[in-house]
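Milestone M4 deliverable, item 7.
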Amino acid sequence: MISETEVRRVARLARLSLRPEEVPLLREQLGRILEHVARLGALDLDGVAPTARVPGLGRDLRPDVPEACAAAEDILSNAPSREGRFFKVPKVIE
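Output delivered:
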């Protein structure tokens, strides 16, 4: 089972603010997710080749055709914070 400390740490890393009453519910939900992942990890997959997609379904890709994109200024107008021609985001690497 995941601890309340770990729940708070995961929430902080995900930049989520949790109210104290939410921690037990999230602890239970994350615990169930981790139990499910553990069951998946216990499956015998000997002889099963790793794949990135299910074979035989075909490719539903659109044609690769160049198109005009929005102007940089229009895109940056939606940014909550910017620095010159760039989005300004919080530092995530210490």
